[in-house]
Amino acid sequence: MPFRLVEAEDYVRIPPTEFGKPLEDIALQQLKSRYEGRVLREVGYVVAVLKAEVGREGKIVFGDGGTYHKAVFTMLTYMPLDGEVVEGVVENVREMGMLVRVGPILGFINKIHVMDEPNIFFDASTKSYIGERTKRRVSVGDVVRARITGVSFTTPREGTDLLLRVTLTMRMPGMGKLEWLREKKPAAKKT
């Protein structure tokens, strides 16, 4: 998985009630709440803010009792790559497709991409898909291997955070439920 450490810069506000406390601790808490769990187009999903270095000299803004300090910080990020092969856990199965947890994000597999079968049936009572020919079943909690077929960024509404959309397929050789991939294939007959 393409996890990366990314160095970034921002300004943090130190309120007067926090004066005298370690700047790095205050800044780290602010940066964690501001960045962790967000999607940034340049770096992907921000998993964690790991450390921060804060400039000792702050700036004062008229009418504000706090000080503003430049902070250089390190983030752990995850950016899925188109074509990447990933493994994840099925979190939800619905009639139109299923959601798979891939590291810190969710990917979507459309029903037609769940398995290489002409007919796939949705079983609402067990929240699973069943292949007509092989009777193979994939359900919530199963571990699967899939290929990323699309990565896009969207903003659902004005003023909301950016979303990361990942589409997957298991309809390729070497993809599918890990249990299926471990099944022994019959040996080829010698002629």
Automatic annotation (TrEMBL):
Cellular component, GO, one term: cytoplasm
Domain S1 motif: residue ranges: 83-171
GO molecular function, one term: DNA-directed RNA polymerase activity
Predominant cellular place of this UniProt entry's protein: cytoplasm
Leading EC class: transferase
Keywords linked to the UniProt accession: Cytoplasm, DNA-directed RNA polymerase, Nucleotidyltransferase, Transcription, Transferase
Subcellular location: Cytoplasm
Biological process according to GO: DNA-templated transcription initiation
The reaction(s) this protein catalyses: RNA(n) + a ribonucleoside 5'-triphosphate = RNA(n+1) + diphosphate
This enzyme's EC code(s): 2.7.7.6
UniProt keyword DNA repair, yes or no: no
One Pfam assignment: SHS2_Rpb7-N
NCBIfam families: PRK08563.1 (NF006333), rpoE (TIGR00448)
Comment, domains: Forms 2 domains with an elongated structure; Rpo4 packs into the hinge region between the 2 domains.
Subunit annotation: Part of the RNA polymerase complex. Forms a stalk with Rpo4 that extends from the main structure.
Role: DNA-dependent RNA polymerase (RNAP) catalyzes the transcription of DNA into RNA using the four ribonucleoside triphosphates as substrates.
Family designation: Belongs to the eukaryotic RPB7/RPC8 RNA polymerase subunit family.
Name this polypeptide is given: DNA-directed RNA polymerase subunit Rpo7
Protein source organism: Pyrobaculum ferrireducens
Lineage of the organism: Archaea, Thermoproteota, Thermoprotei, Thermoproteales, Thermoproteaceae
